[in-house]
Amino acid sequence: MDSAAAAAVAEAHRRDWGFVLAATARITGDLDAAEDCVQDAYAQALTAWPANGVPANPAAWLTVVARRRAINLIRRNDTLSRKLPLLVLDDTLPGPGDGTDTAVTPIPDDRLRLIFTCCHPALAAEARVALTLRLLCGLTTGEVASAFLVSETTMAARITRAKKKIAAARIPYQVPPASELPDRLAAVLDVVHLVFTTGHTAPGGQALQRRDLAERALDLARMLRQLLPDDPAVAGLLALILLTDARRHTRTATDGRLLLLAEQDRTHWDRAEINEGLDLIRAALERRPPTRYALMAAIAAVHAAAPRWEATDWQQISDLYDTLIQVWPSPVVALNRAIAIGEARGPQAGLAALDELATEPQLASYHYLPAARAEFLRRLDRTDEARLAYHEARLLADNPVEREFLARRLSELDA
Amino acid sequence: MAGYMVFIWDDEAAWENAGPSTVAANQAEHEDFIARNAASLRGGNRLHPSGTATSIRRTADGGVAVSDGAFAETKEVIGGYYLIDAADLDEAMRIAVQVPAPFGGVEVRPIWTTS
Is A99 left (phi over 0), alpha (psi -120 to 50) or beta? Predict the structure, then answer.
């Protein structure tokens, strides 16, 4: 096979799957049928592109092929009764089976409708992530299952059940009205953020990161920015992902061990991603009060602006956490705020702030709490207490790279 | 004369495994029941499975918490109902969220249509 054409199909799979599927779902009125048609279009591309050359607009080519197949299927199945009702489409745009000639009319970009349907609050949170990765990003059920450490059978059942609910409960294939947009968009951004954090620090497996997931999250955030260019919440999430992802090459040493922010080689941070993130911060902070992700991005920006760890403006970070905890009062934010206080005002102040969180049930099994205590105790030369805290953190950590890091800290303490 | 809402509580897992003859027999029994009680019946419908349910609660801070699925806590029982017409789930939820349910919430279930 022509390797350039094969690479073009792979690239189009990653870049255009969501676009092609969203446009095809409008014809089929049925997500399963749309997936089959899109799969078929990519299969056809694998033979057509090496023979005829890669089309100038791969997304349009794939959409035309997928929609043509959808129209043929509908004509063939017209008289068959359906097991489920169709997707709820509005009347203003071409609907199922209207046979619109996609070769001459521009293809509407329906990816926003698709992601709002996938992330509808009436769907279970884990189903929203699964549907988004599958329908917008084109991941297989097996790939989605492995990202969230469940069996493929479990994930397949979860996806099937969610699709049935979309059809039976009539979750509309629509961008919500302006009055509902902020809440509904927040649900979408949470899904994209969860995909990113799952990729940034993988809950299982041997590696610290799952780059595939982190990159999908970045793609989704860029897509949302392109489709909702004036939304500060979207700008905030994209900025946060860019500024965090910019550190990806420096988070582990060549031997795979974890490097703290303090130890990372900042010359290898991705300057292009940092600059893109910094450009978005202003837009992100426009809304009052600023969104959670905008504030998290602003904190990441302070780190990005420091040429060395020692030059970090911890007072500014501590102030930003004070605002963040008003907007998003979560135990994890409280923990990070305590760490910032410790860096800004000394380990004793940090320890005092951490000790306020000791009885927080949501942090009871969160390894970053004892790890942060251990760090401040170590700086205060309270070695025995630090050792106990590192032990506790190591028992609670899931990721092997993080566990190894904590074991190393322990042995340094004894040295 | 008083009105009564009769909710049919049944084992969904058993129905998923039931063969077509069981389904057909049940259908016939319902038709028989309807024929025998026609004078008393105001209406009735089959609902889609509880997997298609959406539960909505008011939160302490005045917001709305939407969750996938039926109410599960046993202290909550069905205390009344409204039958509504809506174009899609979003419109149904806009109406449902206005239903007073100070000690619980509401569950939105799509009605099975045979068209």
Answer: left
**DSSP 3-state of A363:** helix
Number of domains present in the structure of chain B: 1
Query: Residue length, chain A?
Result: 415
Q: Residue B13 pLDDT > 50, yes or no?
A: yes
Asked if the Cβ–Cβ distance from A124 to B110 is below 8 Å, we say no
Please give the helix or strand (H or E) that residue B56 lies within, else none.
strand B54-58
Of B51, B54, B67, the CB nearest to A161: B51
Lowest mean pLDDT among A263-277, A367-381, B25-39: B25-39
**Residue B33 three-state SS:** helix
Give how far A190 is from chain B: nearest CA, Å: 15
| Residue B98 vs residues A151, A325, B68, B91: alpha-carbon distances, Å | 40, 31, 19, 12
Q: Which residues of A touch B16 (CB under 8 A)?
A: none
Q: How many CB atoms lie within 10 A of CB A69?
A: 21
Question: A110 in a domain, yes or no?
Answer: no
**The total number of structural domains that make up chain A:** 2
DSSP for A165-183 reads HHHHTT-BSSPPPTTTHHH
Query: Does residue B55 sit in helix, strand or coil?
Result: strand
B108–A contact, CB cutoff 8 A = yes
Choose among A85, A164, A176: nearest Cβ to B51.
A164
A166: amino acid identity, one letter: I
**Would residue A9 count as lying in a domain?**
yes
Does the residue A240 lie in any domain? yes
Contact A313, A302 (CB under 8 A): yes
Residues of B in contact with A164 (CB under 8 A): 51-52
Integer Cα distance of A354 and A369 in angstroms:
8
A381: left (phi over 0), alpha (psi -120 to 50) or beta: left
Of the three residues A46, A81, A116, the one that is the final residue of a domain is A81
Please name the residue of chain A whose CA is at the shortest distance from the CA of residue B108: A169
Q: What's the gap in Å between the CA of A163 and the closest CA on chain B?
A: 10
Separation in Å, CA of A141 to nearest CA in chain B = 20
**Listed residue (A51, A62, A52) closest to A11, CA to CA:** A62
pTM of the prediction? 0.84
Give the residue numbers spanning the domain of B58: 50-108
ipTM: 0.75
> Residue B15 above 60 pLDDT?
yes
Instruction: Report yes or no on A176 lying in a domain.
Output: no
Q: Can you give the residue range of the structural domain that contains A43?
A: 3-81
End-to-end CA distance of chain B: 34
Residue B21 is assigned to a structural domain of this protein:
no
For residue B44, being part of any structural domain is answered with no
Contact A176 B51 (CB under 8 A): no
Scanning every residue of chain A, which has its alpha carbon at the shortest distance from the alpha carbon of B67? A122
Single-letter amino acid, residue B48: H
Q: Does B85 touch chain A (CB under 8 A)?
A: no
